[in-house]
Amino acid sequence: MSLSLEFAELAGEIAREAGELARRRRDEGVRLAATKSTLADIVTDADREVEELIRERLRVARPGDGFLGEESEADTGDTGITWVVDPIDGTVNYAYGIPAYSVSIAAVRGGTVPLEWEALAGAVFAPAMGELFTAALGHGAWRGEHRLAVTSDTPAGALLATGFGYDPTTHDGDLATVRQVMTMARDLRRGGSAALDLAYVAAGRLDGYFERGLRPWDLAAGALIVVEAGGSVTLLDAASSRPMLIAGGIDVHARLRGILEEKA
Ligand code: LIP
Predict the structure, then answer these.
(1) Partner of 217 for a Cys bridge, out of 74, 86, 210, 250, CB 3.0 to 4.6 A?
(2) Which domains does the chain have, with CATH numbers?
(3) In which band, very low, low, confident or very high, does the pLDDT at 263 lie, cut at 50, 70 and 90?
(4) Where does the pLDDT of residue 264 fall: very low under 50, low under 70, confident under 90, or very high at 90 and above?
(5) Residue 87 Cβ < 6 Å to ligand 1
(6) Is 19 in the pocket of ligand 1 (CB under 6 A)?
(7) Whole-structure pTM value
(8) d(Cα 39, Cα 195) in Å, to the nearest integer?
């Protein structure tokens, strides 16, 4: 079995186990553990517990690999492989009891600069919906046993998704971006989990997605799933503090890039 397929299988297994833990903790009641960059940027006890489980499973299965997670110390490892993990993506949804949250696990090689790395495998598991999205480099993207493909035709305009950061001072600029992008859209969705938004682009449930300010763990698995489903993913203003991620089928990605590069 190729390394990417082996990693995709491992990521999927761990994402399922971690997601079931997150779902149990949600049913038991969620406790706020702390706030981070702003009052709106929360972390729950479950975020930390789920990341600890994922980290321990990877330590046993892949000793020496690096780890870059949202809620714990980074570790560069010594194998050249790094696991990029968001234990609960869509944390605010999770805290409010909205089912659109996911566990995102990716294996990358060649450093941890988003999209400069070589993504080998990714898994996004949505516990409340019981859906596992996976991709292995060169082996396609899947929802369970179902092969995924991005959309290619948007005669009524593109169904797009986006998101907004935790810093309220960024909202005006992001809303101006939405106004610009709506010229190519039929409608807009704001799901609250970047990993799920990307998985939905890969599954053809969205035509495209754009969002400023994502962290590596928000996008690592979902970006590979989109590419392996025949789509394109680009980080505009990659060197800035709030790079713009765009994702979609080839045509939608090109149209998003045309509008957003002008704006940048
Ligand atoms: C979230 C992203 C979402 C974004 C939120 C937040 P978290 O990640 O998945 O797309 O709009 O601001 O960054 O914090 O739930 O892991």
Answers:
(1) 86
(2) 3-147 (3.30.540.10), 158-263 (3.40.190.80)
(3) low
(4) low
(5) no
(6) no
(7) 0.97
(8) 22
